[in-house]
Amino acid sequence: MHGHDLSPSTIAVGAGRPDRVPGGPLNAPITLASALVPGGASEYGRHGNPTWDSFETVLGALEGGRALAFASGIAATTALFDLVPARAAVVAPRTAYYGSLSQLHERARRGQIELRLVDIDDTAAVIAAADTAALVWIESPTNPGLEIADIEAISRAASQAGTAVAVDNTFATPLRQRPLELGADFVVHSASKLLSGHSDVILGAIVTNSDRAHSAIEARRSALGAIPGAMETWLAARGVRTLHVRLDRAEANARELHKRLTASRQVSSARYPGFGTIIAFEITAGPAAAQKMTEQSDIITYATSLGGVESTWERRRRHAGESETVPEGLIRLSVGIEDVEDLWIDIQNVLAAVS
Ligand SMILES: *Cc1c(COP(=O)(O)O)cnc(C)c1O
Question: How far apart (Å, rounded) are the C-alpha atoms in residues 132 and 21?
């Protein structure tokens, strides 16, 4: 039908819709079903649901593989870690999303895996650790430190060593980074964040371009029962329709705010990887002032999570589980799609109040 490769924006809007039939809906309906008529793709609601397919199709098309939706990002991560053979080695970032790391630490404590922690931006160290490992777990950019991994170089070396590579692509989204094209074997998402985009969904996904791995992960999902709800996948598919527009706007805001934060005398450091919607910064007044500041803002919401249309921020170490390698005063700012001048006035006001 198409004479050329479609752009990601067009895929985001169009993929995963039902066939066009007279009188039929443009969007996949929300199918609430525990049992389905035998003879189709699935006959029990824990194994499959037509509403999941819509989200999985559009995400798979954007990432260049086949997607499977899970109950949450962590459910997806857990299902993937479950595929690591007993007592095999897993390479992972020293600092990354703490829910994923705590899964790995727990498995290591029980003697189920050997955990090799690395600085994910030290490519030589990652490659050295990947030798004889079963899996390299990458997050890039990392949450909340925003370190960047060289996915292509790591994947090339890992593939020669027979080591699988999985990338948590939550922060970049397939519109800014396509790990499967860079040689990774798996992409993992917390679709609760930018993909859904409105802070109203908990959902995860794994994408792979190996049919064998796809089947193994699908079997794991059924076995664990870590399945998404029809409503959540419907909302996420709707969120993806506007991902490119939200991302462009939030990214432009983030770039500008990072520039202004960097120039501010009240800010001691501000990190932004050059793409995405997350800024990590510290203020000269210290951690207690940082905590106070995030609680006092007017437009920016004091809240955890990220990737919504509304700007949110928090001091990450307020969570007991956050890694001690994350600075005590680090504020993670998730930039939304509001007017950038309004956001900057809000930031300046609270900075002035605590400095
Ligand atoms: C939030 C997050 C997760 C966990 O996803 P949930 O949907 O909350 O289970 C995993 N990785 C990253 C990078 C995240 O930000």
Answer: 52
